[in-house]
Amino acid sequence: MIERQGPLSLSRQCELLGLSRAALYYRAVRTGAYELELMALIDRQYLQTPFYGSRRMAAWLQTQGHTVNRKRVQRRQTNRSTEIKSVTLT
């Protein structure tokens, strides 16, 4: 798609494709095993108690021996709800 040694500069190629230069160099970070374990725990607990918010879920995870804060739980819940919405809409 983007040729490093092409007739057009990288900036021009990115501009034509509607990409920023930063997007050209971005490398996705893999999700670690611990993060996957946390997401699985949050999913299982959410199925049992869908009324738990991020604060209550973080407190529950702490009782299970995991050191997490509310913002981390919020990110995981937001990512999960986005995945669920995209699956149900298609």
User: Which sheet architecture does the biggest sheet show?
Assistant: none
Our Rg estimate from Cα atoms comes to: 20 Å
Number of domains: 2
In DSSP terms, counting alpha (H) and pi (I) runs of 4 or more, how many helices?
5
Mean pLDDT: 86
- Gross geometry: elongated
Percent of residues in helices? 55-70%
| Number of strand segments | 0
Contiguous low-pLDDT stretches (5 residues minimum) are: none
In N-to-C order, the SSE pattern is HHHHH
Structural class estimated from helices and strands:
mainly alpha
The fraction of residues in strands falls at: under 5%
First CA to last CA: what distance?
27 Å
Short overview:
The chain is mostly helical and 90 residues long. 66% of the residues lie in helices and 0% in strands.
Polypeptide structure, described:
The protein is mainly α and 90 residues long. It folds into two domains: 1-29, no CATH class; 33-89. 66% of the residues lie in helices and 0% in strands. The protein has five helices and no strands. Helix 4 (54-63) packs across helix 5 (70-89). The longest helix has 20 residues, at 70-89.
Secondary-structure blueprint:
Blueprint: H1 10-17, H2 21-25, H3 33-48, H4 54-63, H5 70-89
Helix pairs in contact: 3-5, 4-5
List keywords for this structure.
single chain; 90 residues; mainly alpha; 2 domains; 5 helices; 0% strand
